[in-house]
Design goal:
Elements lengths: L13 H8 L23 E7 L5 H4 L24 E5 L1 E2 L30 H9 L8 E2 L23 H9 L4 H29 L4 H28 L20 H17 L5 E6 L15 H5 L5 H27 L1 E2 L2 E2 L4 E6 L15 E5 L7 E3 L8 E2 H12 L19
Helix pairs in contact: 4-7, 5-6, 7-9
């Protein structure tokens, strides 16, 4: 198997690679587990896109809230999709004051360092548990330029993120050799046997320990149950070929800062995974670093630019980067909208969230987070003011509760939510 890397200057011929990898063009029906629902648009999906270093408030937030509000400069790539998205101002996680560390809390609203195991379970993992292994992957995670660590399981384990789109391509769509499949089957059986053993031992201990130890055992058993579900889910899909897709990998990235090459690859893979029903829950985004991103007009390190000191040259470069992020999301949304299904289009059933744990990176502020929500069948086209009568801001978890309910999860409140966003309901 040829392994490709976007930072290699020498790349194999695309057709030869696809042939060697067993990748063809058509999407399979997967009859062994029921017909694929990719063409019906019947299933809800959730995509959470994030920027680890926030967005400059002055160029991100629109200035008014009335109908037909003027888009801000950074949001201008969304101008052709006015009725497909909603902008939110004055929403945040009220108990988070962790500066850059807030990227770990973006999808939960809970400080991961102070949380008990499982207390900081992220909303994407609540959605992923709702789907389970109905799809090959309950959730898919990728972040360019550095990991963000915003996804946490019920047992408090941080979910692994891919950083290379071509590694993600292989994971999602390239079938392993028969020898590798047999080796994995043996490994899964062995892991299952070990889990049975340790779970039995833990259950016997549970009867003879104090309350504090019983809580620790409960955490341990939760982790075991997660592992069991993963093993059983992997076994279910082991004999079923991965979806065959047409993925153009001919572009050659100069390195891991070549966002104009890597970002379209990332979003194309998310689109293919949605279209083929390979997964229904995704996190993606742009991590924290201080390298110069290879975008025209940008010459300084990204982190340094967020601490711009109101210098015009730095603000100009920062706006170029942030507008690029929104343009990539806009391209992704447009592609979902243009993909017709029996019930409408893929965007109708796909929630696309954009946000950050930082409101203003220049001040390390975790207040007034930049948030956009598109698609999902919601009523859009507005700029929502989350300021409360007492001057406080609306918990972002109110939006997450609304999204989870839209996803089909029976939940009244996610973490510290105080309600839902009824304005989004059609």
């Amino acid at each position: 198997m040829i392994r490709k890397s976007p930072i290699n200057s020498v790349r194999p011929d695309r057709r030869a690679f696809l042939k060697a990898a067993g990748v063809t063009i058509a999407l399979p029906a997967l009859e062994s587990i029921g017909a694929s629902k990719a063409s019906t648009g019947a299933q809800k999906r959730m995509v959470c896109i994030s920027s680890a270093l926030g967005m400059n408030p002055e160029s991100f937030f629109p200035k008014t809230f009335e109908p037909g509000f003027e888009l801000s400069p950074v949001l201008s790539p969304l101008s052709g999709l006015r009725e497909e998205f909603t902008v939110f101002s004055h929403v945040d996680h009220p108990n988070i004051y962790t500066k850059h560390g807030a990227m770990n809390s973006l999808l939960s609203g809970i400080d991961a360092k102070r949380a008990s195991p499982g207390e900081n379970r992220s909303m994407d993992q609540v959605a992923a548990a709702h789907v389970g292994y109905e799809t090959r992957f309950p959730s898919v995670h990728i972040s360019l330029g550095g990991k963000q660590g915003s996804s946490w399981t019920a047992s408090g384990i941080k979910v692994r993120e891919e950083e290379d789109p071509l590694d993600l391509f292989q994971k999602l769509f390239v079938n392993d050799s028969e020898a590798a499949k047999k080796a994995r089957a043996v490994e899964l059986d062995e892991q299952g046997s070990v889990l049975d053993l340790v779970q039995g031992q833990a259950k016997r201990l549970e009867k003879n320990v104090n309350q504090s130890d019983r809580e620790k055992l409960d955490e341990y058993l939760t982790a075991i149950r997660e592992a069991e579900e993963k093993i059983q889910g992997m076994k279910r899909w082991e004999g079923i070929p991965k979806s065959d897709v047409d993925f153009d990998d001919s572009a050659n990235a100069h390195g891991n800062m070549d966002y104009p090459t890597l970002s379209p690859l990332m979003f194309d893979l998310l689109f293919l995974a949605i279209q083929s029903d390979t997964s229904r829950v995704f996190t993606a985004g742009f991590g924290m670093h201080n390298h110069a991103i290879e975008i025209d007009g940008v010459k300084d390190g990204y982190h340094g630019l967020t601490h711009h000191g109101n210098r015009p040259d730095r603000l100009t470069q920062l706006r170029i980067i942030e507008t690029f992020y929104i343009a990539q999301m806009a391209r992704f949304i447009e592609r979902l909208k243009d993909s017709k299904t029996d019930s409408g289009n893929l965007l109708d059933d796909t929630m696309v969230f954009f946000g950050s744990g930082l409101g203003d990176a220049a001040r390390h502020s975790n207040r007034n987070l930049p948030v956009v929500l598109a698609g999902g069948g919601f009523r859009h086209g507005t700029h929502i003011d989350g300021r409360q009568p007492n001057g406080s801001q609306t918990p972002l978890n109110n939006l997450y509760t609304t999204m989870l309910q839209n996803f089909g999860v029976e939940i009244n409140r996610f973490n510290n939510a105080t309600g839902t966003f009824n304005e989004l309901q059609s």
